[in-house]
Design brief:
Structural class: alpha/beta
Strand content: 15-25%
Largest sheet: 8 strands, parallel
Distance between the termini: 15 Å
Length: 225
């Protein structure tokens, strides 16, 4: 991790028919590649099936950070770990056995994250906070890229950061996903986030590599923990 900050571009807004080159655009500046897996059940959109995800993991120049927006993460999440993802995040709202799925992902060789939608309070994920490597706080409703950043979610980030700072030893990352740009990343970092997913801001910019560097600089300037 560079200066305690991770910038993970999402390929949700990249050109799906030219992903190798799209990933290469940010491979020198980004920390990880954020791979959004949507099944058109848990969220009203579809991106990649498991087979296509395995292909992307295999050719990515960057370690892959998978975000599973799917209805059955209990069975599927460990498979993404086994496929080579460095980190696998599943949704609290979708899992039937959260503790077991956390354990299964870890034993399959990946770091594990738990994601919460905007309407899900921190109190529901707090019992698992010392078992996970990453807490993903959605700053948009999951399912589509290009949505506006939900500023009201920063209270949840602050609450999570206060709790995480009480942990002795390894502290999970706080990742935010949705509407992250040069206009919003400073606010998120000030609230306590230290891992940022950026899709539109990166892939709709004229220079994706430089945009990742600019996002990192802003986050580093605002993060105080």
């Amino acid at each position: 991790m560079k200066n305690n900050i991770l910038i993970n571009p999402s390929i949700l807004n990249a050109k799906f028919d030219d992903l190798a080159n799209e990933i290469a655009k940010v491979s020198q500046s980004a920390d990880q590649l954020h791979l959004d897996i949507m099944d058109n059940i848990f969220v009203p959109n579809f991106t990649f099936d498991f087979q296509r995800a395995k292909e992307i993991i295999a050719f990515s120049d960057l370690p892959v950070d998978a975000h599973l927006m799917i209805a059955d993460p209990d069975n599927s999440a460990p498979k993404y770990a086994q496929a080579g993802c460095v980190s696998v995040t599943f949704h609290l709202e979708a899992a039937k056995n959260i503790g077991q799925t956390i354990s299964d992902v870890k034993s399959s060789g990946a770091k594990v994250g738990v994601a919460v939608k905007p309407g899900t309070p921190f109190s529901l994920v707090e019992p698992f906070i010392e078992q996970i490597d990453l807490l993903l706080i959605m700053t948009v409703e999951p399912g589509f890229g290009g949505q506006s950043f939900m500023h009201e979610q920063m209270d949840k980030v602050k609450t999570a950061r206060s709790r995480i700072e009480l942990i002795k030893g390894g502290k999970p990352l706080i990742q935010v996903d949705g509407g992250i740009s040069l206009e919003t990343i400073g606010e998120a970092a000030s609230a306590g986030a230290n891992c940022f997913v950026a899709g539109s801001a990166v892939y709709k910019s004229a220079d994706p590599d430089n945009m990742v560097q600019l996002l990192r600089k802003s986050a580093e300037e605002h993060f105080r923990y």
